[in-house]
Amino acid sequence: MSYLPIQQVLKTLPVGTDVTIKGWVRTKRESKNAVFIALNDGSTINNIQAVAEAGQLSEDTLKLITTGACIAVTGPLVESQGAGQAVEVKIVTVQVYGPADPDKYPLQPKRHSLEFLREIAHLRPRTNTFSAILRIRHALAFAVHKYFNDNGFYYLNTPIITASDAEGAGEMFRVTTLDATKPPLTEEGKVDYSQDFFGRETNLTVSGQLEGELGAMALGKIYTFGPTFRAENSNTTRHLAEFWMIEPEMAFYELEDNMNLAEDFVKTVIRYALQHCADDLAFLDNRLKEEEKTKKKEEQSELGLLEKLQFVISNEFVRLTYTEAIEILVNSKPAKKGQFQYEVSWGVDLQSEHERYLVEKHFKKPVILTNYPREIKAFYMKQDEDGKTVRAMDVLFPGIGEIIGGSQREDDFDKLVARMHEVGIEPEALWWYLDTRRFGSAPHAGFGLGFERLVLFVTGMGNIRDVIPFPRAPKTAEF
Ligand code: 4AD
Ligand code: MG
Questions:
Q1: Ranges for the Aminoacyl-transfer RNA synthetases class-II family profile domain (predicted)?
Q2: What is the CATH number of the domain that holds 15?
Q3: Are residues 90 and 146 in the same domain?
């Protein structure tokens, strides 16, 4: 008697094999002659059908086999008469592990809205849509590690509790060991936060980049892949308070090398998902097509999910400078007709409406924008000779906007310190970071990919809260 996940049973076992299948009941259907149970164990989007003859199972057992119950069925694999399935299990015995009271179990065999499923995030992995997303998420994470391992990068674990604000944007969550009921007070009677973390002010990391640079200056090529935190109160479909970021950092890379790596990397991991998640992607592709049909004709997207992924991996990304992009935007129809919510001119930070115009309307391809004005970018980016721009790059994707942000780093000690003074960062606070420029400085570059934005793109979902198992965003952290 073999016990295998359904995915392997369907793929590898011939008719006639005796099997035990353990999983959760998706549906039960009774006809005059038989009972049909669709079982799923999370290993695949495909259910396996288990069939008993009418009267074979006791009334008591049948009553417990409802949607959501966990059961094991044992019997031979036989050819199936059902459409879309080659084999099914002819039930010999059934064991009920855990029933699920149909009056109380929130998931029913029908399509629930994503909003409703967000309210029961603890159970939504049991739905087809979310189990497909989670398997794709897993495959993408594996592909990320594989890509870097295959290309000579070392995986560096950077701290989650840190005293630095890597982006200098001040969007940090504080970490504290204080007893909230008896906090130490300053002479003025205010809470003395300088005592926070064993006598130090600390926060949850917004990015592992600065520590990543230390790694690159020692190991050559490194990458991080860990949770990062932003206390921006953005209630958007693209922002989370806790998200996973992948940050490669490479010694001796300049901006051009950085762009080449970003493009090859993102295409390779998408290709991996297409090769290894075909069933799940086909399911999500269908789901999306159904959803598109409910939209007005002019709002329906031209490409299906699979076509969109194929398109991205087989076309070169457009590369242009921020200055060139502004030129295009200023002369665009929405700008002339005043349709952008935010006006656009040289020096402003691009809003997602501008990014999406460039990608979805103008070029209809992923775009890498480079050489942004120094004032709107972080202090660590290498300054261009013109004194106005820095060697930044953002990768913009259709439906997403910014998916990657990166740059060549300022490797000149004096220029970096001067820039820190300009933006109000105390060089002493980052003395360890400056040591990379003090001792054996080298040209280097890197970028950060928001993992959930990648999963959002690959799954075709519309809200970032639906591509992470336990979303942390304003009003969501119940468990
Ligand atoms: O552009 P960001 O802020 O860049 C950095 O943090 C750099 N230190 C990266 C580097 O050069 N090593 O963030 C990088 C990416 C963004 O492009 C976006 O994909 C994602 O992280 N991101 C978020 N994803 C989800 N929720 C948020 N609140 C995010 N903020 C940034
Ligand atoms: Mg950015």
A1: 134-469
A2: 2.40.50.140
A3: no
Q: What's the rounded Cα separation, in Å, for the pair 125 and 111?
A: 14
Burial class (CB in 10 A: 0-12, 13-18, 19+), 142: middle
51 with 136, same domain: the answer is no
Taking CB atoms and a 6 Å cutoff, what residues make up the pocket around ligand 1? 166-167, 207, 209, 230, 239-240, 243, 245, 247, 402-406, 446-448, 450, 452-453
Count of CB atoms within 10 A of residue 292's CB? 13
pLDDT mean for each 10 residues of the chain (479 residues):
84 95 97 97 97 96 97 97 89 98 94 93 95 98 98 98 81 81 84 72 93 98 97 86 97 98 98 98 96 86 92 97 98 93 95 93 96 97 97 96 97 97 94 97 98 98 96 71
Taking the centre of ligand 1 as the mean of its atom positions, its distance from the CA of residue 404, in whole angstroms, is 7
Q: Is residue 106 part of a domain?
A: no
CATH code where residue 355 lies: 3.30.930.10
| Model pLDDT, residue 304 | 93
pTM, full prediction:
0.95
User: Are residues 43 and 160 both part of a single domain?
Assistant: no
303 C-alpha vs ligand 2 centroid, how far in Å? 27
In the chain, the number of structural domains is 2
* Beta-carbon neighbours within 5 Å of ion ligand 2: 405
Residue 108 belongs to a domain: no
Range of the domain at 94: 2-98
Same domain, 154 and 238: yes
In a domain, 64, yes or no: yes
**Nearest atom (ligand 1) to Cα of 447:** 11
Same domain, 159 and 92: no
